[in-house]
Structure formats: structure tokens, C-alpha cells
Design goal:
Elements (H helix, E strand, L loop, with lengths): L9 E4 L9 H28 L6 H6 L1 H23 L3 E3 H34 L4 H4 L2 H27 L7 E2 L6 H5 L7 H35 L3 H33 L5 H26 L1 H17 L1
Parallel strand pairs: 1-3
Antiparallel strand pairs: 1-2
Helix pairs in contact: 1-3, 1-10, 3-4, 3-10, 4-6, 4-8, 4-9, 6-8, 8-9, 9-10, 10-11
Length: 311
Amino acid sequence: MDSQVNVSTVLMLKGLNFSSESVFPAFLFSTLSYLIILFCNLMLMLTIVLNKALHQPMYLILLNLPINDLTGSSAVFSQIIKETLTNSGTIQYSTCVTQAFFIHIYATGSVLILTAMSYDRYIAICCPLQYNAVMTNAHIMKLITAVWLTCFILIGVLFYMLLRLPRCRSEISNTYCDNPTLLTLVCADTSINNVYGLVIVAVTQLFANGMILYTYLQILVTCFRSKSPDTKAKALQTCATHLTVFLLLECFGLFTIISYRLQHISTHFRRFLGLMALIFPPALNPIIYGLKTKDIRETIIHSLRKKINNF
């Protein structure tokens, strides 16, 4: 191991080593994937923002999900598309850190936003008479602010701890930059960083899973006690949509985290898992919500019909 401190501002990016035959397919795949993510999330955002009927607590909290998804996917795809065009095999250290920072903001934000949405559904279904009194605009703003503030504080501390350490390597073996990859460049003891990283994951996962498990158990009990079949069906459909998105995120996210801790897992498989965690949830979340949430689906269909008729 080289113990000499490396102050180079340029890193070698070995995870995106394209052959001449694979450049065009890689560029096509990455560009189309990003355009699909961009289109679907912008459509969901504009649908909520431009329709006053959707200016309700549930949708105002949901609005943060496509914003967060675009943050994570833009951080990844901007670098991948640039690399497929230039095939330089390098990345600026500052760019790498920025990309990693926003990828971790995306990962933490996704969990906390979905947790906030489960809280909203719990109040709406289990305490409907108190819903309007509890979920006021001021309360929603506090909830959304708390989500983003928690993300930036947790991830800010994580990267402060990273940046204070000296580097003695300059080769990135992943397809994108993240905290575990950046720690491989360090030539000092990283045990505190690893412990803090694991604590963040453990605390957010325990909080999110505990909150969602409790709220949805309460929702299921309330639904099965309800004598109104319409109320029961609507509540269960909303919950099924939310749980689908949450489980999708959890599966990809946890598999990626675990893959870093298991040394015998193939590097290529680890890269594949990491990319899928950043491609599939941002692409599927707006589609799932658009198709499964009646108010959003009907609003999109109405808007499209209006534009077609005007055309």
C-alpha cells in the first residue's frame, strides 16, 4: 500500500471502461434511461403543481419524491453520459465528491419521504376527523423541512468526516462515486467513518421500517373494521401503492449496502446492483403513483385529452 499522500485533483475511473463497440449502446441506454426518468418525474411534479385539486397534504409530500429521484439520477447519469461521449476514464475529485454527496442525499431522502407519507396516510385513515386539524400547511412544511434538514445534516457530517482524511490512491473501481468507494482512496484509519455510515443506515432503517410497520398495521386494522367497502378499497389501494414503492427501494438499497460488506461478491455484480438502485426506483416511482393513484391518473388523462382536443 502506498502511504504517500495523494493530492491529485483527477481520479482514474475504472468502473466505466468502455470498449469501442460498447460506447454507442452504453450511450443509448444511459441517455434513454435518463430521459425516461426525467420525463416521468417532471410529469408527476407538474401534475401536482399545476392542479389545485392536488394541493393536498398527501400530494404535497409526494411532490418531494420526484424532486429527490431527479437529484439522485441526475448526479449519476450526468457523469455516465459524459464518460460515454468522451471515454476519458477520469473524473475530477471535486465532481466525484459532489456526485457521491447527492447520491447519498437521494438514498436517505427516499426513505424519509416515504416514511413521512406513511404518517400522512395513518392520520388520514385512522384519525380522519382530526386530519384537517393535524395536517395543516404549517405542519406539512415542518414535516418536509425536517426530512430535508435531517438528510443534509446526516450526509453533511458523513462527508465532513471523509474529507478530513488524507488520500493516497486515485483509482475509482465503481461506475459512480459514493462514500464506500471514496473511502478506498484514503490512506488512514476509516473505522470511525465506517461505524458512522453503518449507524446512519441502521437508524434510518429502524426508524423507517418501524414507522411504516406500525402505521400500516394500524391502517389495516382500521380498514378491516370499516363498514364502508369504498373507503376500505381506496385506503388499501393507496397503501399498496406506497408499500410497492417502499419495498422496491428497500430491496435495491439493502442489496447494494450488503454487497459492499461481502468481499466474495463479484465487482461487476456490485456495480450492476448499484446502478439498478439508481435507475429503477426513479423510473418506476412516478409510473406506479401515476397508474395506481386515482386522482393523479385521472388528472393526467384529463390533461392529455384536453391537449389532444386543442391540437
